[in-house]
């Protein structure tokens, strides 16, 4: 049981001794004050969790003491002690912020219940504060960082569209920060206090996409042993973020279009429409215009999504942000990894600036995280990954060693084979993984690593 600090303000010595005995047995730390002025001093000095305040006091009444407490501490839990259990007294005390009252003669069980309730309330408050702090920390990590004119323009568009309940389409390469932009839009919207639900359309096997997004009824397919609530229902009154929307099959595109038009969904195996209230944010690294022309993406869905498009700029196109973000992540990972790396050497920074960053901001973040672990006091060129060290290779210059040439050749062959296989099976990633003799997750990671897009 949590140890509470309890202050009893009562001029009767017997009452003080009684409370001291009962509360000490309950594991509380007890202080006694004989009058209001002494009570006020002890509150400021001892910072108790609970105050038991007698209404009948010399010099100042309990009501006057309560008024004074509320001037400097509005949250302190105060319980009124009265010899006369009258409605008028209780109502007046409650209006001034008292949480409860005890009547004389006191019942021991009533006092124990009071302590138990105070502890429960205290624990709940701690959990709420902790959860709020965690949410605040998450929010800090989910903030788009940058000082370039390109990213500032993106910030401006996000701020303008966020308060308006319209569909937003975020466009940009993998790693540019599309999900961070979606979080920012949600945080500044009227739905900010509701759920933010993410669906990575590229990470879900094709056979599970419909069930994951729209849910399913028990017995709707083999293995459906119970009803499952889909992401759209989980996002009720909140925001749903569909990442890599260009990977959706034509069948799911039809169901998504219906959800956008009618604001209803049907679970897999269900028979009745379910009303849903959501704000949709979609993201893609695919050229949807080209996909539309080639009949890989529905034209009607394209126009439903293309209400307010925002282009997230590539890191290599963001003037000065490689240096700015490198310093930002250095500070961040020094803190989270308990390291004390002071700076990035000028040679290492030159390499970072020269590198083309095909993985964009996400790649830069991982590079700095790794370098902070490897470095002593300064990040040096040798603390950076080989591909970053050899930034000139991205500009068409020849590799300097056989080992590097072999690595580059292997990566090119892997990339071409994955691209060809995906194209042959119309981007059915489950089937492509079977043909390549690798598991689904490995294929997914390779697609991300090589920045392979569905053109």
Tell me what the structure shows.
The protein is an alpha/beta fold and 455 residues long. It is 49% helix and 13% strand. It has helices at residues 13-25, 36-46, 62-72, 87-95, 108-141, 149-161, 178-187, 209-214, 231-234, 250-262, 288-293, 299-305, 321-336, 346-354, 360-374, 386-389, 402-424, 429-436, 440-449, and strands at 5-9, 29-33, 50-54, 77-82, 100-103, 168-171, 196-200, 215-216, 228-229, 239-243, 264-265, 274-275, 279-284, 308-311, 343-344, 378-379. Strand 11 and strand 12 form a beta hairpin. The longest helix is centred in the first third of the chain and has 34 residues, at 108-141.
Topology:
Blueprint: E1 5-9, H1 13-25, E2 29-33, H2 36-46, E3 50-54, H3 62-72, E4 77-82, H4 87-95, E5 100-103, H5 108-141, H6 149-161, E6 168-171, H7 178-187, E7 196-200, H8 209-214, E8 215-216, E9 228-229, H9 231-234, E10 239-243, H10 250-262, E11 264-265, E12 274-275, E13 279-284, H11 288-293, H12 299-305, E14 308-311, H13 321-336, E15 343-344, H14 346-354, H15 360-374, E16 378-379, H16 386-389, H17 402-424, H18 429-436, H19 440-449
Parallel strand pairs: 1-2, 1-3, 3-4, 4-5, 6-13, 6-14, 7-10, 10-13, 15-16
Antiparallel strand pairs: 8-9, 11-12
Helix pairs in contact: 2-3, 13-15, 17-18, 18-19
């Amino acid at each position: 049981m949590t140890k509470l600090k309890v202050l009893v303000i009562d001029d009767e010595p017997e009452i003080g001794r009684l409370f001291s005995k009962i509360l000490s047995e309950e594991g509380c730390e007890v202080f006694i004050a004989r009058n209001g002025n002494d009570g006020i001093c002890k509150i400021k000095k001892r910072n108790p969790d609970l105050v038991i305040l007698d209404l009948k006091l010399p010099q100042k009444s309990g009501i006057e003491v309560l008024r004074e407490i509320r001037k400097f501490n509005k949250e302190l839990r105060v319980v009124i002690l009265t010899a006369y259990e009258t409605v008028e007294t209780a109502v007046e005390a409650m209006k001034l912020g008292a949480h409860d009252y005890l009547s004389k003669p006191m019942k021991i069980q009533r006092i124990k219940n009071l302590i138990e309730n105070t502890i429960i309330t205290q624990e709940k408050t701690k959990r709420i504060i902790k959860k709020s702090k965690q949410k605040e920390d998450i929010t800090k990590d989910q903030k788009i960082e940058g000082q370039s004119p390109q990213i500032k323009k993106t910030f401006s568009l996000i701020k303008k569209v966020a308060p308006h309940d319209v569909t937003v389409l975020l466009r940009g390469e993998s790693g540019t920060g599309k999900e961070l932009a979606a979080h920012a839009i949600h945080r500044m919207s009227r739905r900010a206090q509701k759920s933010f639900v993410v669906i990575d359309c590229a990470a879900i096997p094709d056979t599970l996409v419909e069930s994951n997004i729209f849910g399913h009824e028990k017995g709707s397919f083999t293995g459906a042993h119970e009803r499952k609530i889909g992401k759209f229902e989980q996002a009720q009154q909140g925001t749903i973020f569909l990442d890599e929307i260009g990977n959706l099959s034509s069948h799911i595109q039809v169901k998504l279009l219906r959800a956008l038009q009618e604001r209803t969904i049907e679970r897999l195996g269900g028979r009745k429409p379910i009303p849903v209230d959501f704000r949709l944010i979609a993201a893609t690294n695919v050229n949807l215009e080209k996909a539309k022309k080639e009949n890989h993406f529905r034209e009607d869905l394209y126009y439903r999504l293309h209400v307010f498009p925002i282009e997230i700029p590539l890191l290599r196109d963001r003037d000065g942000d490689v240096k700015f973000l490198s310093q930002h992540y250095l500070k961040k990972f020094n803190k989270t990894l308990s390291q004390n790396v002071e700076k990035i050497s000028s040679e290492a920074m030159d390499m970072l600036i020269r590198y083309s960053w095909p993985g964009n901001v996400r790649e830069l973040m991982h590079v700095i995280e790794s370098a902070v672990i490897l470095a002593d006091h300064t990040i040096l060129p040798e603390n950076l990954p080989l591909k970053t060290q050899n930034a000139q290779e991205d500009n068409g210059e020849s590799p300097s060693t056989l080992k590097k040439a072999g690595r580059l050749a292997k990566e090119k062959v892997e990339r071409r084979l994955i691209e060809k296989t995906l194209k042959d099976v119309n981007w059915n990633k489950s089937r492509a993984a079977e043909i390549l003799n690798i598991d689904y997750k490995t294929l997914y990671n390779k697609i991300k690593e090589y920045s392979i897009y569905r053109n």
